[in-house]
């Protein structure tokens, strides 16, 4: 499972094809949901919240992003801001930091702390590396998945708080993110982040 | 009753939609929101004083914003073709925003507090991008990305705090309640508690617009409709600072208050210095006011970092004084914008001749920290708290930032109120004298420990 998470996270950062990145995000978030599921299903409320978060993250968001890319050919490539070697370095740094987390004395007894940190770092790297609004949206969702997994690893005794946070975070990012992307299409068909630099200083 | 108080603004916004004739709807809006604003009065004795103070602040300014918006909605804010640029949606989002802020300040645990802060993002992202203009959408996007990262980090910190609480023997239903954590502070792991509160601080500081997580604030606060800018700057930032205050009390109870205080203090000092410097180069009135919010959030953080009863009192006084001053400044800026069609400082000369300009003059003088306004008193108390805490370097950095912010606000006031030459000259002289006095004070503050 660790290897699949590593590969999916690396695809998020390294790949530039929107459809492939969305597929990698679905695999990554699906695996995270699978890991979180046993603790998330502890109470009826946490079950309901888990299902809501699952639907938002793995159904609504990917379909929304795919539909934008489908209708807008210019958005089918995420136009990374840095070259492939630098993106590879970013993946390796994320993996090294995640490995470091597992070795920290506080987290030694938590084997999933590493994958959680790696997922969150890959999401964060997407925010920095890709210059496309859809990529930033996927990055935010991946970061949220990593933080959810991290929370579940750190405090398995608080499933309702964690699932509540995961569901609402996914709702905010998916709902506002897709609405803003839709509004941006009129001004910026490329959905390029470079055009979002008029407000500086 | 707390649930009712939280839901009242949102419910009133929905009920108002049932009234059809426009005139009746306006009257209904003012009456119902006035009632919603009065509901927190029923909570006296049911919640602690800190919550009550902030709930009062949220309600009064929420009501003023609604009334101001009702009166000014003839202005065509929604110039773009975005789905949500409709009057009814605006007031629903405003009601949601108001309710979410009440949830933040009336919650009894960090889980609900986090939900409230997160819910403000849901409402305000659309309000920031309400005009549908490209720059407003840009501001809304930055707001979404940076605040989502911030609140995600805050959630991780809260969960980590929950782990600390569970380890200390609290049950899961009380693991995030600050009163329970404070009462149970006996056996906790200090490193984990330190990490949890530090992560929470970074998350909440992002929403409060403290440097270096402030990048979204000047954009969002300057591009939102003027009444919303007032509420964002005056109240939302205050709610985020409230979250920091609650975290601070828990950190102190867990025995990691010193580390937390130092972090808050330096976030504050850096915010004042950076915002003060950037205020000097602003050419847009609303952007200048937005950077002033970063500066004032920094002053509150600095006071909290200095700690002690004086520092805490100064922080609370500053929050209240800033909330009213900044809201009135943004409301006046909205009037000015409707009169002149722009907020570019170079195009706003001779404002003294307009109603908005006169209000703006008063608000700008108050914001610059001149006597007899509340911000003058609170800033003096912050300095006194810094001296009492012997935090000379942070105090000096903060003082230099305050002087720069003062100069920027004074210069802008003179520029836009240009028709009033006499006041301009007086303000100019006063600003130079005050800047010199403050700089001398800063030098003295830095020099005292060395002389000793």
Question: What quaternary form is this?
Answer: heterodimer
Derived from helix and strand composition plus strand pairing, the structural class of chain B reads mainly alpha
The tally of strands of chain B reads 0
Helix-strand pattern of chain A, N to C?
A: HHHHHHH
Number of DSSP-assigned strands of chain A: 0
Structural class of chain A: mainly alpha
Mean pLDDT of chain B: 88
Q: What's the overall geometry of chain B?
A: globular
DSSP strand (E) fraction of chain B?
under 5%
Instruction: Give the low-confidence spans of chain B.
Output: 446-452
Helicity of chain A, as a percent range: over 70%
Biggest beta-sheet profile of chain A: none
Uncertain runs of chain A: none
Average pLDDT level of chain A: 88
Q: How many structural domains are formed by the residues of chain A?
A: 1
Measured between the Cα atoms of the first and last residue of chain B, the distance is 56 Å
Largest interface: A-B, 41 and 52 residues
Radius of gyration of chain A: 17 Å
Largest sheet of chain B: none
Features:
heterodimer, A: 201 residues, mainly alpha, 7 helices, globular, B: 452 residues, 0% strand, disordered C terminus
Structural topology:
The complex is a heterodimer of chains A (201) and B (452).
Chain A: H1 2-14, H2 18-40, H3 44-71, H4 84-103, H5 113-129, H6 133-154, H7 159-184
Helix pairs in contact in A: 1-2, 1-4, 1-5, 2-3, 2-6, 3-7, 4-5, 5-6, 6-7
Chain B: H1 2-16, H2 22-38, H3 49-72, H4 87-106, H5 110-128, H6 134-167, H7 178-183, H8 190-208, H9 216-223, H10 226-253, H11 257-279, H12 285-306, H13 308-340, H14 355-367, H15 374-389, H16 392-416, H17 421-451
Helix pairs in contact in B: 1-2, 1-4, 2-3, 3-4, 3-10, 3-13, 4-5, 4-10, 5-6, 5-10, 6-8, 6-9, 8-10, 8-11, 9-10, 9-12, 10-11, 10-12, 10-13, 11-12, 11-16, 12-13, 12-15, 12-16, 13-14, 13-15, 14-16, 15-16, 16-17
